TrEMBL record:
Keyword entries, A-Z: Membrane, Transmembrane, Transmembrane helix
UniProt key word Membrane: yes
GO molecular function, one term: transmembrane transporter activity
Protein name, per record: ECF transporter S component (Folate family)
InterPro entries: ECF_S_folate_fam (IPR030949), ECF_trnsprt_substrate-spec (IPR024529)
Top-level taxon in the UniProt lineage: Bacteria
Transmembrane regions listed in the UniProt entry: 24-45, 57-79, 91-110, 122-143, 155-173
Coiled-coil annotated residue ranges, if any: none
Length: 181
């Protein structure tokens, strides 16, 4: 994985990915994966009122691999809104919808029309864990609740969950690759 080459190809990848939004088959497939994301998002293991273990991100990863960053990013916003409607805890905050958009974009940029490897999955998950889970989500929780205690708990949870998330995502993507399209 040549990092500089990957960065240089991002505009082309995003342009190519935006064509998926014009295909009925892509919109329907992405909608099904978004539905699975929402359903999985309503089932989680609560550790505290603001800290939970969930696995809905796997479906965003699969969507990013198949439909690219643009469609998966917008599907993330829809998924976040539907998850809140299905199971509201606390006030609605648009920062979390931004998180879901960025997660879809990151997964799409790492997996869309790319050779799947464990290193690629590890790098994508590391970006999401550090930038989204630890930085942005902690920022949003601090804005909402004016407490930095959440950051310490989030670090502990993300360190423990990182290898589990990487393994689950890798095996889910490998299994998806075997499905004929």
């Amino acid at each position: 994985m040549n990092f500089a080459k990957e960065i240089m190809q991002l505009p082309k990848l995003i342009k190519e990915s935006s064509k998926e939004m014009k295909k009925v088959k892509s919109i329907c497939g992405c909608a099904m994966l978004t539905t699975l994301n929402v359903v999985a998002g309503t089932f989680f293991i609560p550790l505290s009122p603001t800290l939970r273990i969930g696995f809905s991100s796997i479906f965003a990863g699969v969507s990013g691999m198949i439909y690219g960053p643009v469609l998966t990013g917008f599907a993330g916003i829809i998924a976040d809104t539907l998850k809140y409607i299905a199971r509201p805890d606390g006030p609605y905050f648009p920062g979390f919808a931004l998180n879901e958009f960025l997660i879809g974009m990151i997964y799409g940029c790492f997996f869309y029309k790319k050779e799947l490897s464990f290193l690629r999955v590890l790098a994508a998950r590391l970006c999401i864990t550090v930038f989204i889970n630890l930085f942005l989500t902690s920022l949003w929780l601090n804005i909402l609740y004016q407490s930095q205690l959440f950051t310490l708990l989030r670090i502990f949870k993300n360190v423990i969950m990182f290898p589990i998330d990487v393994a689950l995502l890798y095996f889910a993507l490998k299994a998806t690759k075997r499905i004929p399209t």
